Structure formats: structure tokens, C-alpha cells
Amino acid sequence: MAPSSTSTPSDLPHGQAPGLTQEQLQQYNEDGYLIIPNALDAATTASLLQETQEMLSSFSVADHPMTKFSTGENNKAHVGDDYFLTSGDKIRFFFEEDAFDPSTGELAKPKHRAVNKIGHYLHELSPAFRDATLTPYHAGVARSLGFRDPRVLQSMIICKQPEIGGRVKPHQDSMFLYTDPPSAVGFWIALEDATVENGCLSFARGSHRRTPVARRMVRKRGGNGVEFVDVEGARFPEGFEVEEKEKEKEEEVYTLGEVKAGTLVLIHGNLLHQSEKNLSAKSRFIYTFHLIEGENEYDGRNWLQPPEKGFTRLYR
């Protein structure tokens, strides 16, 4: 895999709303993702990492259902219990599958080294993560991307723990946060360096222009678990220029995205991306949240349903 090209945060005149430069926007539109180093300053990055470590150390396992997070690898069912399905407006902890002793079912790692991710309402319930999410810079980026009423949802810390951090197979974010037409964009922020060794992201460059959102994850009727169903609505964003594949079964080539702590990666909702298992001795902590267009229809069968007050507005 070839390394990804990177961009730098835009330097704008005083008083002008921050956002993407024309060069950055063109690169994002062409590739389906954009790597922006130093989008988060070192002090804020360190503070969020410290906040994460405190959450991992202080949460209780005594009353925890010990829910394991599965991405569906090796045909395993995706996590879909009540603890997961009702986490959209809470901060909850989901364990790595390999953190348990298969013979006893007990944790084989200390709890702070056993969690796969923390989610999914950090942008409202954690002051530190709220301050790092609802920023003028992120609002400027959203404006650059054409959002009219961007709403924040599914914020989470993904830990990618040493030795056991699970592989995430190729997927599209709009499979999980479907709007009609699709509108999801992931804001992925490295809290630690992400390398080949500890499971950095890789991207099928340009796949957002040739890969429709054909399947999506929904709640099973009756509310018990989740399943994947065919998309009946739009499969590409509104007004999107679609590129035909040369061959129907052409295999995608993935480009590595090694980044330093503090880097922001923007990920188009149709873009295929993945990460490998972390077999190294170093963790790969990241913070991610997603935007959807508030003016688009958000389906009632999506796994994550809006809280009573609705999804958080990014434009203040």
C-alpha cells in the first residue's frame, strides 16, 4: 500500500470563518478523504488522551453487561444488544472480543486495556470532548463541504488496544448512519500516532465516487438486535458525480494513512476504508464523530436514534 498524501490546516485572514482551502476541498472530493496534520494542538490532544485514560480507569465492571464490540469480522454478528442500542445519548464502554479468556469467559486483560471503544455521546456529556467537537474550525469545514444544517452524532473513542485491537473490515460510514440521500462525513482525530504496526487506517482512494451505499445496518423489527438490509433510497449523495467501475468485481487498492497525534482525517460516507489488527505493544487511541445533513431524512430504523432534543447542531 502506498502512503497517503497530506494537507495542512488553512491559514485564513483574521475574522474569516475557518474551513478548507480550495486545494483541500478538491483533494477531498477526488480522494474521498483528507488528512490534515496538526488540526488539534498538542495540549488539547494530550488533555483528551488524559480524559480518556481517566474514563477507562474509573468505569465500573461490577454492573457492566460485558458487551463485546464486533465489527462483523469472520461472519460474526455485529453487536446489537440493548446496552449498545441505547448508547446513542450515553457514554458506555464496549470490550474487545479478544480481551476475554475463551475457556472461562472472564476478562484476561486489565479493564483499561480491554476496552474496544467508548461511545456514543461524548460530544454532549464530556465537557472536554464537547469543547473539542463543537469548534469554529469544524463548523468552517462543514460549510466548506456544503452542509446546510450539520448535526453531530456517534462520537466515540476507539482504543485499538495493544496486541488485541481488532481488525475493522472495509466499510462505509453511511452504512451505519444512513440518510436519504446519504450525507455522513466522519471526523477522525488521532490522539496517538497511528502507524502500520498499531493498525492505522487505509483508504480505497476515490471509491466514494464508484461505490454506492448498497446495504445498511438497521434495528431488527421488534427492537431485538440489528441486521443488514438493502438500501431502498438514494445510494449516493445529492448531485454527486458518479464514476463507473471498469470491472464489476474489480478489487480495490488501499492506501495507508499513517498519521501523527493531532491529525484530523475527513472521511466521506461512501468511502471504503479499513484498519488492520493491532499486534504491536502500542495502543492507537483516536476520537471520532460524524456529521449528517439535518435537512435529509434520517431513517427510524437506523441503529442510533436521536435523543429527545434531537441531534446536536454544529452551527451555533
Q: What brief labels describe this structure?
A:
single chain, 316 residues, eight-stranded antiparallel β-sheet, 23% strand
Description:
The chain is an alpha+beta fold and 316 residues long. It is 16% helix and 23% strand. It has helices at 22-31, 42-58, 82-85, 122-125, 127-133, 136-144; strands at 33-36, 91-95, 115-120, 150-158, 168-171, 179-180, 185-190, 201-203, 215-219, 226-230, 255-257, 264-268, 273-275, 286-293, 297-298, 312-313. The strands form 4 sheets. Strands 1, 2, 3, 4, 7, 12, 14 and 16 form an 8-stranded antiparallel beta sheet that branches. Strand 9 and strand 10 (226-230) form a beta hairpin. It starts with 21 loop residues before the first helix and ends with a strand. Residues 10-16 have low confidence and may be disordered.
Give the helices and strands, then pairings:
Blueprint: H1 22-31, E1 33-36, H2 42-58, H3 82-85, E2 91-95, E3 115-120, H4 122-125, H5 127-133, H6 136-144, E4 150-158, E5 168-171, E6 179-180, E7 185-190, E8 201-203, E9 215-219, E10 226-230, E11 255-257, E12 264-268, E13 273-275, E14 286-293, E15 297-298, E16 312-313
Antiparallel strand pairs: 1-12, 2-3, 3-4, 4-14, 4-16, 5-13, 6-15, 7-12, 7-14, 8-11, 8-13, 9-10
The CA-CA distance between the termini, in Å, is 40 Å
In total, the number of strands is 16
Query: Overall mean pLDDT score?
Result: 91
Uncertain runs: 10-16
Provide the succession of SSEs.
HEHHEEHHHEEEEEEEEEEEEE
- Describe the largest sheet: 8 strands, antiparallel
What would you report as the Rg, rounded to the nearest angstrom? Answer: 19 Å
Q: Strand content of the residues, in percent?
A: 15-25%
Helix content: 10-25%
Determine the number of helices (DSSP H or I, runs of at least 4 residues).
6
Structural class: alpha+beta
| Shape designation | globular
